[in-house]
């Protein structure tokens, strides 16, 4: 049996012989031992040993690189290169070819029955990403997934960088049976497109918690113009700008639109800051772009970032075409909205908002309008362009009320991402983020990256945080929430405390879906009924709870209660608990059947009342009449079969079956459906016709109900602005609550801001690094900082390596950011002036992709600071000039600091290892102070006293006045575990260099002193020398011209000896001077 089985299996793998040999062998039989059967060779070829040999001789072919789409820069699959005239396609395959020709840069998922199938190269790509099996079926490779896993697999493909399209059947079996194309395939069409930026707002797969999660997914469109930059800005640094950039960023799932136009330099540092603050999911490049801009964007969207890039041409927008296209879209949207509102008799408050939005578009810069037009055109293919016209909240990239942190500041201060692994852990945002909702977390991120520059706005936030923090303390100490005194005639009500209500609302919202994205999905008409109900219930609950605070002051005649004092809190609570929002939410909820929504029953979803949804009512009535007609057919069947007790039955979802014994004779036109051993179940012709009519009525009801649901969601567009304002108010309350929680948990203090007309100053007592203070707790060493524009406004900090210099200057900058965000700060006290910018130059890095060396990065950051800082800025510089030679580095660092002090007069914290820079203190007396990070040193018992490598250094991390004597680099070398022989050799070399330098300095000083002394002696000798020969005779001294010449030669030799740096020549001059001096002594 085993041998026969082997023969059967081997037939599938044996090589096929020619027909001629096969026929000849069949006609003339041969003995079996002459030629072995082919099965043995086939069996041996699949042994592991031979497979290894074959694989070594014939290495597998390397797979072809995926083709690039003509519209994108991503590896997008393209249709197969096989021509249609060479192969015969099935009807389904013909549909696939047509769809792929229409959408060449889209990975298509095609609905076929209960599966979504991939075809061709799409199948191969999906198999690699999803880990599914792809196989050949007819003419194409194919792979499939079940329909109920669409959400999961679309997210995985989108996160891999693909543009995914879902193709669904446009007709059902019932409709197709009554249509003209009964024999053809089901009609199919592209129903949805998905990318990273549009996923959360899209239908079927959006609104989930996995995948992109709660992070922002901005689509950023960038255009530039390098033609007229010189006309825009002139001056000493005017040549530093070589391009004008226009940027529009859209968060489609929240309706947030950011726009701006600005000048940028060759290295595009301004554009880099925008990208770091927004963290876009997609980049839309408006071609043509300058090479440097495109290079920077492509470097940002590298393989590690997983940012999708797509290109779009803007040639058609030359000469005002961009503004015309945007205005036409706004006008069309406005007319559609107006007509819909008139049909539904709605009072829409945002018609004025629509006009103001058009006015805002008219005032936008030209490049920003071009970027906006490209963005709208891009969103049209997804059907999401309405958000740009009717529901978007536009804001500028930079304004007078906010500080824009540069890319260097965000990176080097670790505001959003740490420098070790790029995660959020250990950053300023991480320690400040105590929000309870996803949309609150997104808003806090924007607050942290855009601190306020207006003293009144900062004080308003601080007042709100203080009041919440105080209410937290009073709530914890109180024993009861409310009490009621019935004995008094005047009713005294102690309302539920503010913190209790606020925390309960935020906790409940934290367990609810992302209502900010939820209302936007409702606006896009992509929300599911269950999602709609969850969002409306969350908004309704929050509003009703906040209404208990009676902020409006109406419920006050016989009521005495503690009211809120913060104007910001009052405004936010009034917005979130607006009666209009609560009333509309309740009205919308009353229209939807909650049980049907939970069960996904679209047919019974809408509650019909007051003449609403008349088409749904007619369709339901048609279905009901079809059911009644079908049920009435049982009487006809009873008469026809002569069975009074005959009833319809249902089996496995098949209804209206007539079950009869197996030997029972029925009319020939009855259709047998199924059977058992003893019974057979039939459908009569009339029942079949009635079932067909019922199915058609149900299909019509489904279409009508879907249209009614879409119309219902479209009606919500009239209320979107009010709901959006309420959700933004809830997000702001969550951020203020998070800042209050931070201040209570960490014992932070409230900063005090001086008036704007006072000099710029920073006074911090016992300041701490907010991140390290959280990690080290009580072990962190605090430091004071005192800077004043009219006194000392620059600190030069020196000290040993790893002594805490960088930590000190970072903590000052982070405290300034936290204070202007509206947060309490880690210090004993803080008195600050509002800063208009915080600029940093720290660390050493290069960018090989963009051709930037370490030193070029340093100078680029320094140049950016010198161009942009003002007298109200804080500048922190850490070891500028270390990327080049010592002389060049000292010179550049000195000149940079000199420029900051003389021309900018800003607050400066300057860390350096160059003691020479501290000499600038003599030029700017009273404005510059020298400090160092203190330490203690002790020598080992067995080591020589002059060996620096044997010194034990204890870092005290306290900033004290003075310049540090040493940097103790050898201690860092020991910590880095350099070989001891290497460290010893370095110590000897350092000692020689220091001795040489010190001796050179001593020689120069000694020569200088001797020269001064000799000059004095020469002058004295000339004064005491007799003026005539007669005086010599009177003093009994022999005078001659030779004596005067000898003295002159003596002083000249001494002078040459002190000025010449060559020791040999100096020695010769001194030797000659000595001989002259001996002769003079003898005389």
Automatic annotation (TrEMBL):
One GO location term (cellular component): nucleus
Primary location class: nucleus
Disordered: annotated segments: 1-86
The species this protein was found in: Citrus sinensis
Protein name (Swiss-Prot/TrEMBL): DNA mismatch repair protein MSH3
InterPro entries assigned: DNA_mismatch_repair_MutS-lik_N (IPR007695), DNA_mismatch_repair_MutS/MSH (IPR017261), DNA_mismatch_repair_MutS_C (IPR000432), DNA_mismatch_repair_MutS_clamp (IPR007861), DNA_mismatch_repair_MutS_core (IPR007696), DNA_mismatch_repair_MutS_N (IPR016151), DNA_mismatch_repair_MutS_sf (IPR036187), DNA_mmatch_repair_MutS_con_dom (IPR007860)
A Gene Ontology BP annotation from the UniProt entry: mismatch repair
KW Hydrolase (keyword) present: no
């Amino acid at each position: 049996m085993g041998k026969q089985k082997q023969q059967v299996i081997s037939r599938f793998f044996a090589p096929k012989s020619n027909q001629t040999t096969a026929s000849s062998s069949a006609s003339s039989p041969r003995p079996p031992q002459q030629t072995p059967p082919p099965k043995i060779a086939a069996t041996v070829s699949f042994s592991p040993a031979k497979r290894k040999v074959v694989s070594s001789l014939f290495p597998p072919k390397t797979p072809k690189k995926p083709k690039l789409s003509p519209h994108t820069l991503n590896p997008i699959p393209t249709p197969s290169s096989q021509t249609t005239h060479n192969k015969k396609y099935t009807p389904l395959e013909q549909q696939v070819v047509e769809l792929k020709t229409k959408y060449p840069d889209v990975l298509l998922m095609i609905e076929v029955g209960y599966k979504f199938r991939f075809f061709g190269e799409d199948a191969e790509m999906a198999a690699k990403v999803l880990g599914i099996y792809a196989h050949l079926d007819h003419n194409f490779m194919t792979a499939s997934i079940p329909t109920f896993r669409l959400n999961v697999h679309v997210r995985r493909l989108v996160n891999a960088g693909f543009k995914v399209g879902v193709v669904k059947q446009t007709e059902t079996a019932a409709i197709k049976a009554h249509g003209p194309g009964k024999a053809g395939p089901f009609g199919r069409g592209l129903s949805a497109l998905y990318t990273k930026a549009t996923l959360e707002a899209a239908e079927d797969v959006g609104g989930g918690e996995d995948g992109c999660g709660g992070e922002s997914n901005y689509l950023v469109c960038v255009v530039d113009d390098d033609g007229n930059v010189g006309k825009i800005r002139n001056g000493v640094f005017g040549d530093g700008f070589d391009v004008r950039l226009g940027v529009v960023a859209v968060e489609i799932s929240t309706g947030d639109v950011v726009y701006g136009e600005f000048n940028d330099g060759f290295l595009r540092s301004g554009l880099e800051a925008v990208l770091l603050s927004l963290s876009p999911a997609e980049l839309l490049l408006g071609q043509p772009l300058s090479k440097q801009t495109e290079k920077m964007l492509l470097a940002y969207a590298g393989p590690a970032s997983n940012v999708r890039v797509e290109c779009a041409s803007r040639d058609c927008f030359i000469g005002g075409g961009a503004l015309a296209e945007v205005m036409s879209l706004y006008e069309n949207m406005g007319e559609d909205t107006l007509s819909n509102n008139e049909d539904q008799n709605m009072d829409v408050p945002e018609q004025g908002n629509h006009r103001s939005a058009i006015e805002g578009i008219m005032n936008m810069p030209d490049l920003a309008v071009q970027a906006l037009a490209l963005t709208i055109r891009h969103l049209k293919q997804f059907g999401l362009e309405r958000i740009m016209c009717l529901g978007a909240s536009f804001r500028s990239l930079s304004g007078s009320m906010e500080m824009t942190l540069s890319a260097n500041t965000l990176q080097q201060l670790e505001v959003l991402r740490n420098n070790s692994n790029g995660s959020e852990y250990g950053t300023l945002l991480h320690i400040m983020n105590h929000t309870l909702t996803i949309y609150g977390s997104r808003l806090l991120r924007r607050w942290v990256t855009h601190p306020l520059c207006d003293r009144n706005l900062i004080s308003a936030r601080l007042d709100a945080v203080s009041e919440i923090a105080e209410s937290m303390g009073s709530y914890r100490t109180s024993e009861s929430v409310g009490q009621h005194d019935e004995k008094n005639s005047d009713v005294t009500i102690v309302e539920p405390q503010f913190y209790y209500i606020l925390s309960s609302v935020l906790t409940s919202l934290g367990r609810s879906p992302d209502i900010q994205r939820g209302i936007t999905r409702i606006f896009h008409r992509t929300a599911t009924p269950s999602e709609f109900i969850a969002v409306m219930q969350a908004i309704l609950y929050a509003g009703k709870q906040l209404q208990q605070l009676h902020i409006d002051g109406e419920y006050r005649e016989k009521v005495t209660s503690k009211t809120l004092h913060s104007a910001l809190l009052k405004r936010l609570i009034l917005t979130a608990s607006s009666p209009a929002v609560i009333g509309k939410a309740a009205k919308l909820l009353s229209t939807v059947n909650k049980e049907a929504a939970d069960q996904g029953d679209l047919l019974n979803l809408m509650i019909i009342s007051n003449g609403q949804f008349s088409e749904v009512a007619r369709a339901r009535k048609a279905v009901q009449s079809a059911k009644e007609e079908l049920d009435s057919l049982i009487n006809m069947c009873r008469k026809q079969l002569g069975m009074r007790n005959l009833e319809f039955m249902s089996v496995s979802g098949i209804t209206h079956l007539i079950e009869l014994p197996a030997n029972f004779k029925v009319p020939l036109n009855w259709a047998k459906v199924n059977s058992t051993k003893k019974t057979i179940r039939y459908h009569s012709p009339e029942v079949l016709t009635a079932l067909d009519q019922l199915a058609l009525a149900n299909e019509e009801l489904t279409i009508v109900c879907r249209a009614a649901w879409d119309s219902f969601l479209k009606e919500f567009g009239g209320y979107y602005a009010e709901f959006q304002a309420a959700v933004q108010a809830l997000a702001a309350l969550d951020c203020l609550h998070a800042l209050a929680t931070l201040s209570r948990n960490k014992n932070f203090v409230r900063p005090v801001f001086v008036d704007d007309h006072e000099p710029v100053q920073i006074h911090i007592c016992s300041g701490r690094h907010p991140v390290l203070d959280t990690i080290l707790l009580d072990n962190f060493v605090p430091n004071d900082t005192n800077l004043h524009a009219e006194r000392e406004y620059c600190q030069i900090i020196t000290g040993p390596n790893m002594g805490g210099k960088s930590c000190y200057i970072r903590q000052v900058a982070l405290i300034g950011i936290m204070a202007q965000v509206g947060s309490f700060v880690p210090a004993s006290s803080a008195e600050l002036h509002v800063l208009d910018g915080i600029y940093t130059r720290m660390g050493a890095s290069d960018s090989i992709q963009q051709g930037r060396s370490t030193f070029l990065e340093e100078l680029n950051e320094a140049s950016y600071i010198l161009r942009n800082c003002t007298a109200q800025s804080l500048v922190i510089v850490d070891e500028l000039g270390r990327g080049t030679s010592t002389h060049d580095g000292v010179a550049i660092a000195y000149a940079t600091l000199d420029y900051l002090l003389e021309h900018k007069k800003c607050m400066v914290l300057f860390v350096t290892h160059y003691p020479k820079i501290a000499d600038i203190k003599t030029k700017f007396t009273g404005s510059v102070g020298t400090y160092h990070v203190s330490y203690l040193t002790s020598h080992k018992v067995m080591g020589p006293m002059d060996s620096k490598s044997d010194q034990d250094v204890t870092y005290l991390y306290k900033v004290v006045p003075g310049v540090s004597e040493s940097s103790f680099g050898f201690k860092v070398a020991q910590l880095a575990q350099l070989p001891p022989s290497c460290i010893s050799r370095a110590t000897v070399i350092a000692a020689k260099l220091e001795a040489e330098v010190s001796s050179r300095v001593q020689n120069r000083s000694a020569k200088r002193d001797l020269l001064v002394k000799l000059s004095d002696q020469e002058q004295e000798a000339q004064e005491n020398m007799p003026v005539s020969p007669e005086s010599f005779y009177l003093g009994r001294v022999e005078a001659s011209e030779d004596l005067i010449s000898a003295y002159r030669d003596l002083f000249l030799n001494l002078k040459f000896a002190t000025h010449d740096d060559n020791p040999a020549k100096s020695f010769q001059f001194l030797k000659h001077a000595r001989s002259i001096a001996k002769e003079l002594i003898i005389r």
